[in-house]
Amino acid sequence: MADAASVPPELDDLARLKRYLCTSDDLSSGIAECIGHLANDGKGEQVVETLCDFASVANRKLVVGVLAMCTAKNLKMKQAAYEALNTVCTTPPLLFHFLDSVAKQSTKGKSGFGRAKRKAIAKWYNGRSLKELAVFVTRYRRRSHWSHTDLVRLAHTKPGNSGVDFIFKYMTKGLDAAKEHLTDQQSDELQDVIKYLDAVERVKHSHDKQEVALLVQEFQLSHEHVPTWLIKDSREVWSALLSVMPLSSILSHLNKMASIGLLESGPNSPLEAFKSRLATNSLIKELQPFSIQIALKSYEGGKSKRSMITWNPNNDIKDALRDLYYKVISLYEPTGRRYLVAVDVGSLMFNNMAGVPQMTSIWAATSLSMGILRKEANRHLVAVAGKTVSSIDVTSRDLTVEGICESLHQKRGDGTLVLSRVFEWAQEKKEAVDIFIVFTDHINYKSLVDDFRKYREDTKCQSTRLVVALMGKFHDRNTFGIQQPSDPGVLLLKGLNPAFPSVVSHFLNGKLDSPVNG
Description:
Layout: H1 13-23, H2 29-40, H3 44-54, H4 60-70, H5 75-83, H6 85-88, H7 92-105, H8 115-126, H9 130-139, E1 142-143, E2 146-147, H10 148-154, H11 162-173, H12 175-180, H13 188-205, H14 209-219, H15 228-233, H16 235-244, H17 247-252, H18 254-259, H19 271-278, H20 289-301, E3 303-304, E4 309-310, H21 315-329, E5 338-344, E6 352-353, E7 356-360, H22 361-375, E8 378-385, E9 388-392, H23 401-410, H24 419-428, E10 435-440, H25 445-459, E11 465-470, E12 490-494, H26 500-508
Parallel strand pairs: 5-8, 5-10, 10-11, 11-12
Antiparallel strand pairs: 1-2, 3-4, 6-7, 8-9
């Protein structure tokens, strides 16, 4: 357990960069300043290592943008950035975003292809299995004004083996022309790739829904492989896609499938197959619990303003999504730390969140903290209405989002949250706390830092940490990543972030701190 002797040192530039990565959406002047200082201090390779380590927790496009920023610094930092290209840019959209971002580093708005860049791009293409490369070049043909054909031509990328050579010829000349260059001796892997590309081409030119559906299932094609006119309303094709899509893609396309009546109850309905896939234990580890709640609340709304589609919500689907959420929550690994979760129950917290119109800030706060409330042995939940702090019973191990939201609603009050009352409540109850997590739609920045400093001085618990998640649709998103407190024990976060639990875990475990030895 952390104690007063483990007070984290003042934040250095690398620690600030880590916090920017976990709390920002876009490149900011603060990030550029950190990168500049670290480059000047000869710590460019540490920066790149940090980007690789945080790629799975932070906004991936932001990490890619920072990696591109590193290519404009000193030679060692530039070389390290290009060497990390494969690790950070795991898909073609990320690769193309990196190239766009590198071009923006130039005053001319474009960038040439020097030796380091050419070598990195060659490694990106040649370092993949033939099947993965075939999937990438057919699923993501063009993004951000880039295409694979343009890229390998401009970078003068040479294929590393006959299989990659075949795929390059397919990209530039078409499948039939590529086959003309085949030798009689072909590896099993290459033969499988030829069959896969055959299927992709047949789907691209087919007008037979049944044929497309069969090919999608047999070769596990994605929706990007299917012509737009078939994606628009073909139940046969969507049913096939449903059987092969990752769960994250199913959640992303749930409303589209519902809008064409694919998941309605009835004979020959794919509804049971849908529920079966959601219940598959081996597939759920890829999901963030909050992403499921976003999908559920969006589905319950029955319409999408952005895509102009409507559907009739099905109770079976809603139940399946709820079950999936709690199944993913069950994977939460307890830390053994002592938590106090405080939720602001002022009136604005009961308004809907920007970006998820069907979800209130109270619902979002409860959904994000459910792993802690269900699985941690030492946890408390309090509702805060102005200066009034009320404890919420969380002793049951079968807590539900609905039940907690109802309890919080009963404590609803007026007035702005007074954060000091949360700390005073913990002292009055003689509750030792390792980390406070506060969900609110408003915070006084100076008061936050001062009140928390006083609490730690009064309790002599200097290692206690504080996370403040700003909710609601009225917050200034520019607050995040720009006005992070200099106090290493305090972290401001944007509440509507599926990676929230992972970021809190990193913060609690000291992964966002400066090294103890400096």
